[in-house]
Amino acid sequence: MKKILGRVIVVLPAIAIQICWYLLMISTFNGLLQGHLGDIISTLFSVLAVIFVVNIVGKRDESSYRLLWVIVIVTMPVLGALLYFMVGNKKTGRQLKKRLDTSYALFDIPDDAQSDECLSDIMKDDLRIGQAVRHVSESTGFPVFKNDTSKYYPFGEDMFVDMCEDLKKAKKYIYVEYFIIQSGRFWDTLTDIMAEKASEGVDVRVMYDDLGSIGTYSVADIAGLSKRGIKCIPFNPFFLIRSQLNNRDHRKIMVIDGKVAYSGGVNLADEYINEVERFGRWKDIGFRITGKAVMSYAFMFAEFWNAFSNDLIDVNDFSYGANSNESSHGASNGYILPYYDSPIREEHTSNELFTDMLSSATDYVWFYTPYLILGDSLFDAFIRAAKRGVDVRIIMPGIPDKNMVFRLSRSYYEDLMKAGVKIYEYTPGFVHAKAFIADDKIAGIGTVNLDYRSLFLHFECNSIFYKADIIKELKKDILDTQAECVEITMEDVRSGILYSSKSKATNIVPSDNKKHYISRFINNILHVIAPLL
């Protein structure tokens, strides 16, 4: 809270000056126009509202997102048009896109001459999945690799131990990029190791999302790292209300010498390793990979770093260590495709991938997610898959971290369950894991939640694994976690039990049809405003 207040105190004078300037300009122009400035502005924005609505309706975008903005603009033409102009369309992030495009041009994206061969092998084995993987590769520009080694972590504390050991072995560089960084045992331990490596000449760079860590990290913390030889910058710095406010860096990446990479849902704060308890036991997952695929994560980091730092990563350093000596599996350990989602691309890659997996599965598709706020296309894909007999399961938190979002997530339960989707809530605490697995063949592990922010607004990263050993480990973990969950029933939905912030076990109330109808009406409202949450 202290760090947030500090940022607010710095920002408020600038906002106050800006408001006074606008008021002065409005007063001056109103006088020149003999008091008709308000009428002119109202007419102008009404015309803009019509233009925006026509533009929105004609866009190839999520229908629920388009509907929301049409309602906002029709209801409040002036304010609605202004809001859409500021935050409602991708063109508002053009400065951010320009930065990233400039940075992207400095590097050749990781290339694997065998990518086409890998895709061909997958399509020979399963044409439908191969087509989906190829589309992800083509739309993001990232190649498919033969998987070297991949290790699965069912809890953040398990990953923490290996991270420390790998950091101690660094010889050339360490790249760290996370949504949230917070001082505590986890981060302070990593910092001490990285500072020691920096003193040995290792190039250590840290990047965090400025808004994601607004209450946990600050300029003073950056200065502290700098004194210890660690370079640190915020992604998309938050100073004033700006057009790309929504486009946050939700990725979690650690790359060491181009030989080892870590990713998953785990942020660098103590609740993620269950060192402190906030919402019961924190259930999160991650993975460690070696081999050529590591360079995709190195590229992701370098692209974003060079977009916001003058201390550029050198292309020669970037290419260091592309091959691993750790491999014991070779091609027999399947395939891997690391990629990242970008809100400034036309394609919503992960949303399309999940829809594809639900459409192509014949046996089962299981998901881990902390939030469940679905767009129409993905929502329908869940329903269609379950209706045709696919075993569709979703594991959700039993204890929420945000009550409003939890309430909204539960509002999707009834329609999904009617179709046959099974929903489980993790009774020991909060599920922060993000993953899917389908038909024992393919899985994805990364940072992507099943909500609007992850699927359409944030930068995210994910790895698709095909016929790799890690898939078996993920499946076992999901089944182990499910054993600690309660399965939600239609009785729970209709009794009104799910529409309280309390858990199932402690808030059982009698069935009440009137209460159920009211809840359904509230759900419908929540689904309309869901893209804003």
Distance between the termini: 22 Å
Which percent band covers the strand fraction?
15-25%
Strand order within the widest beta sheet? 1-10-17-16-15-11-12-13-18
Radius of gyration: 24 Å
* Average predicted confidence as pLDDT: 85
Helical segment count = 20
Low-pLDDT ranges: 324-331, 500-511
Q: Any idea what the shape is?
A: globular
Description:
By secondary structure, this protein is an alpha/beta fold. It contains 20 helices and 18 strands. The protein has helices at 2-32, 37-57, 63-75, 77-88, 94-104, 115-125, 127-140, 156-168, 185-199, 219-227, 294-308, 315-318, 349-360, 376-387, 403-410, 413-419, 452-457, 469-482, 490-495, 513-529, and strands spanning 145-146, 150-153, 173-178, 203-209, 231-235, 253-256, 260-264, 281-283, 286-290, 335-341, 364-368, 391-397, 422-426, 429-431, 435-438, 442-446, 460-466, 485-487. The strands form 3 sheets. It has a 9-stranded mixed β-sheet, with helices on both faces. Strands 2-9-7-6-3-4-5 form a 7-stranded mixed β-sheet, with helices on both faces. Strands 8-14 form a two-stranded parallel sheet. Helix 9 links the parallel strand 3 (173-178) and strand 4. Helix 3 packs antiparallel against helix 4, helix 7 (127-140) packs antiparallel against helix 13 and helix 8 packs parallel to helix 9. The longest helix has 31 residues, at 2-32. The radius of gyration is 24 Å and the shape is globular. The two termini are 22 Å apart. Mean pLDDT is 85; it is low at 324-331 and 500-511.
